[in-house]
Amino acid sequence: MGKTLVYSFVARGTTVLADHAEVSGNFASVAAQCLQKLPSSNNRFSYNCDGHTFNYHVHDGFTYCVVATESAGRQLPIGFIERVKEDFAKKYSGGKARNATVNSLKREYGPKLKEHMRYCDQHPEEIDKLAKVKAQVTEVKGVMMQNIEKVLISFTATISN
């Protein structure tokens, strides 16, 4: 199987802290242009351009991005981003990334991005399953939160009567 994940980065705001490209192309400049336009709220975004998807996840002030061929589908990029997000948070939760400058983490975290990209490219079935399970867990958590909210509203209404 060829490379389906071709470029990735981790940014704080609009500052790219580390990136890695598996193939040559203008992916970095296109991804950086999109980064400038993303809302800063926690959310996922995906754009299609020239046979590639540009996938972003903004979370707690950091943006995780992977550019994939359209043939990669949706789950593989999402699974990759989840892996990187968890790994990056573990490694840099102490605050080093909060003050890092442009590309200052490239030397130490760029190889980690490469490792994650290659792993995901080589194990797409595993990443797909994991991404689907995480999506289901997130959905169940949302339903549970709504149910708890309804119970609390009902309970509050009962007490005030």
TrEMBL record:
Pfam families: Longin (PF13774)
Keyword Membrane: yes
Main location: membrane
Subcellular location, record wording: Membrane
Gene Ontology CC: membrane
UniProtKB keywords: Membrane
Domain Longin: 9-113
Segments traversing the membrane: none
Top-level lineage group: Eukaryota
InterPro entries reported in the protein's UniProt record: Longin_dom (IPR010908), Synaptobrevin-like_transport (IPR051097)
PANTHER family assigned: OS03G0165800 PROTEIN, SNARE PROTEINS
Protein's name according to its UniProt entry: Longin domain-containing protein
